[in-house]
Specification:
Blueprint (H helix, E strand, L loop, with lengths): L1 H21 L4 E6 L14 E7 L3 H11 L6 E4 L13 E7 L8 H11 E12 L5 H12 L2 H4 L9 H7 L3 E10 L8 E9 L1
Length: 198
């Protein structure tokens, strides 16, 4: 199901957001929950190395295949958001792309991203988030409490990731909000795209 959804999202224009997410990155990067490696083609040549962390074995296998075709050096490793396999202050940038919805503990994941970022480093994020409209938000929370995480790999539609970033001590440099849909049966849902610094 996940791979099919990824293909639909790409066909509907998601690559444009991925390109914007990664534009201008430099140095050493860690990507949390790299999935099958959909971001890899969009890393600019100014990136020295990407440490791609992916806990799910099938996705990690696909990720390694796509890493071999990437325009920058990519190392794919097993790891989880709550214990990133990187030293403190060891990366220039971190990337969280459609993953903070599914980590078991969002606060712990954000604390780990802060830990591995060097002083002055940045976090780039692209995530779907809670709706502003009360009825839509209520429906998202209902889905999260019932069936959605079970059918969507632990995904939660109703997380307020922007607020979580700020609670974790990140300062937002820029943040865009827009709606996007992966296609039926999922309706258009709000997303955020931006950059933050610890």
């Amino acid at each position: 199901m996940y791979m099919g959804m990824v293909e639909r999202r790409n066909a509907l224009g998601e690559d444009e957001y991925r390109g914007k997410l990664l534009a201008g990155l430099t140095g050493r990067v860690i990507e949390l929950g790299a999935g099958p490696g959909n971001n890899f083609p969009f890393y600019p040549p100014t990136v020295e190395h990407v440490l791609a962390v992916e806990p799910e074995s099938l996705l990690r296998t696909e990720c390694a295949k796509n890493a071999a075709q990437a325009p920058v050096e990519v190392t794919v490793v097993d790891g989880v958001a709550g214990r990133l396999p990187a030293d403190e202050g060891s990366v220039d940038a971190a990337v969280a792309s459609l993953v903070l919805c599914s980590v078991p503990d969002q606060n712990r994941a954000l604390a780990e991203l802060r830990r591995v970022l060097r002083e002055g480093g940045e976090l780039r994020f692209y995530e779907h988030v809670i709706a502003h409209h009360p009825l839509a938000a209520m429906l998202q929370r209902f889905a999260d409490a019932t069936f959605w995480p079970r059918v969507a790999g632990g995904c939660h539609m109703g997380r307020d990731t922007r607020a979580a970033l700020q609670r974790a001590g990140f300062s937002l440099e820029w943040c865009e909000r827009f709606t996007f849909t992966p296609g039926p049966p999922v309706p258009p849902i709000p997303h955020i795209l931006g950059a933050a610094r610890p």
